[in-house]
Design brief:
With about 280 residues, the chain is mainly α. Helix content is about 75%, strand content about 0%. The protein has helices at about 1-20, 30-45, 50-90, 100-115, 120-145, 155-175, 185-210, 220-225, 225-240, 245-270. The protein starts with a helix and ends in a 15-residue tail after the last helix.
């Protein structure tokens, strides 16, 4: 397991980091490379047998890094997409990337990453406060994109994934601040809800643009994406409400599996480029 995780970390660094190292000028853009590198290192560290205490801390650090990556990359995808849609409807969306909000949340998540490594009770409260503030600012950023004006399913799924991110940060902060709130609810809100929805939406959107030059060309796939939110709810609600879990676990697993089986079908059906694309090889 350690060898596999180390191989993954090395492959990730080799494939991804050169695209970001030295290319960005603003500090906010420069955060991508260290976040990706740290995720690779944590993947290896989680398989190295540090023990239960360190495994728990590694898990929390990984959650924070994933949250930072989703906040940054999700915002950079959603903002121009929503602004472009607004322009096509004859409206102007002034708040796009919102650099001040973006910078504030990245600083808060970086602070939480450092504080989470300390075991003092005061740092636990400060970590919780930083995460709750980050969640509130993420909601503000989301609302400033005016999601109620978006009628395109592909954009709504992206916005739904970002909503899960904001909810996950709030739950993470509350579970850190209040020991009575289970941490597993945070885990599933961020991983199943946010990461699952955003990954699904971006993969489907990219492939549809590649094949049809239209991210809304196959609206059925966005309807299927709702199964991921159902899977997230089936993991979060029983934990929060202390319900019996076997049936909920089956519902979550079935919903998640069906959603990604449908995505696999879409990727296969859209495996060729648009006829006018420069990627299409000329006839020989």
């Amino acid at each position: 397991a350690l060898a596999g995780a180390a191989g993954f970390a090395a492959g990730l660094a080799w494939k991804v980091l050169p695209r970001f190292l030295g290319a960005a000028k603003k500090w906010r853009n420069q955060t991508v490379a260290p976040v990706v590198a740290a995720l690779g290192l944590l993947s290896a560290a989680a398989s190295s047998g540090f023990g239960a205490t360190y495994d728990q801390r590694v898990l929390l650090e990984a959650l924070l890094l994933l949250a930072a990556l989703m906040f940054f990359m999700g915002g950079r995808i959603i903002a121009p997409a929503v602004a472009g849609y607004a322009q096509s409807q004859g409206r102007q969306l002034a708040p796009r990337v919102q650099p001040h909000l973006e910078g504030a949340v990245l600083i808060l998540l970086g602070l939480a990453l450092v504080l989470n490594l300390l075991s003092w009770s005061l740092t636990r409260q400060l970590t919780g406060a930083a995460l709750i503030t980050a969640g509130v600012l993420t909601i503000i950023r989301l609302l400033r994109w005016q999601p109620w004006h978006c009628a395109r399913p592909d954009l709504l799924i992206l916005l739904l994934g970002y909503t899960w991110l904001a909810l996950g940060l709030l739950l993470f902060g509350l579970s850190t601040w209040l020991a009575r709130l289970p941490l597993s609810a945070t885990l599933h809100a961020l991983s199943v809800g946010a990461l699952g929805s955003l990954t699904f939406a971006v993969m489907a959107r990219t492939r549809l643009i590649y094949r049809f030059r239209d991210p809304a060309a196959q609206p059925w796939i966005q309807a299927v994406a709702l199964l991921i939110s159902l899977a997230a709810l089936a993991r979060v609600l029983p934990t929060l409400l202390n319900l019996s879990r076997p049936g909920w676990l089956l519902l979550a697993a079935a919903s998640w599996s069906l959603a990604f089986l449908a995505l696999t079908l879409l990727l296969w059906r859209c495996r060729t480029a648009h006829p006018d694309s420069t990627r299409v090889r000329p006839d020989r």
